[in-house]
Amino acid sequence: MLDSNSLYITDENGVEKRMIILFTFDSEDYGRQYVVFQDPDGEETEIFASAYTDEGDLMPIESEEEWEMVEEVINTFADDEEEVDE
C-alpha cells in the first residue's frame, strides 16, 4: 500500500513495516511504474525498489535488464541529491 510518502510492506514473518518513499518514476520501455524506498530503521545506504500497480500493489522486478534500468535511475537520483547537498 502506498500513501503520500510511505509504503507498508509485510516481511517474511508477516510483520507490516513502514518504509519511506524516496521517489517514484514511470518507464515507457517497460510500461510500468516504480517506487524507490528505504527502511527508516535500516542502514541509510540500503535502498529498495519495486514496480507497482495503479492500485498500489507492489510487483517484483523480474529481469536483469529491468533491474539495470532501475539502478541507473537510482544512481542518477543519488548523483542529483549529492549535488544539492554540496
TrEMBL record:
Q: Tell me the Pfam families matching this sequence.
A: DUF1292 (PF06949)
Family statement drawn from the similarity comment of this UniProt entry: Belongs to the UPF0473 family.
Q: What is this protein called?
A: UPF0473 protein BO222_10010
